[in-house]
Amino acid sequence: MAELKPEYDRTSELKAFDETKAGVKGLVDSGIKQVPRIFHHPPDLLEKNSSVSDDGICVSIPVIDLKGTKKDPGTRQEIVEKVRSASESWGFFQVVNHGIPVSVLEEMKDGVVRFFEQDLEVKKKFFTRDVRTKKVAYNSNFDLYSSPAANWRDTLFFFMAPDPPMPEDLPEVSRDIMKEYSKQVMQLGYLLFELLSEALGLQPDHLKDMDCAKGLAMLSHYYPACPQPELTLGTTKHSDNNFLTVLLQDHIGGLQVLHQNQWVDVPPTPGALVINIGDLLQLISNDGFKSVEHRVVANSAGPRVSVACFFSTVLLPNLRTYGPIEELLSEENPSRYREVTIREYVAYYRAKGLDGTSALLHFKL
To answer: Where is the Fe2OG dioxygenase domain (predicted)?
Structure first.
């Protein structure tokens, strides 16, 4: 006979955890040896961990060298083809020679560590679940109360474009590098949207003129070392609710992409940035480009840090609707999605939480 597990009040436990304002790092600092039940994921969600294809060949996401993009038309065309291929088949690629100095990348990672490892009383001043009116928000799990299981990570979230916070509203320990890094990511974003526009057969400025590069949110994640990484995840399987993500990850690894129903590791490559297509770019490209599900496994080596920059205008009072781009539609390729505002899309995504299903399905025609 199956052993009856003692009842536990999940809501009370979530609330007790949330009210500490210390996040997952606070649990680790308190010396816990077991992962609390609110973080336990069903075993079937933790399986299928493989980077080897059925025929035994090691599979890896494309790495694209951006050197010469602006100088040589022939090189640019080759890069556009690589971007198109990666965006259609993987939805993910890494870029090198992207123009952001390694020193800036390293200082950005250090800035994340400084924020999360500073005195808790200082960090608590940024704690909020109100990302609508608060310019800078620190918390653990945006979907803590709606997701089936909590993730082993803490996050600092804010928008850096087009309306950045006042300098004094940003954390003092990482203020300067956050401003510098976001400025550099915006420049890289303009280039990537040009390449993606050309990869769709459109004019270079097409996606930029649709405001795809107008808004930039920065999410700094801190994944503490986990005493039982086999029981939980750093981030549940999900796709991103934006146009495009530029991700800086440290040396520890843990990011995995779901490719042909296999989890493929995205190994940390020194100096590289990970780029992935978001749901909104899949929608406006009418499924031409793929917004692919990915996750972060928990680790015992941590802390792992990453910085995800989301190109999205969700917080702007923007009633512009987005549907598949007309130039891409034909009798053979009719529109697959209804028009939607970004705010409506993200509201649905957030309410649903990271439950492992794509929010895109809700907007299909």
So the answer is: 214-314
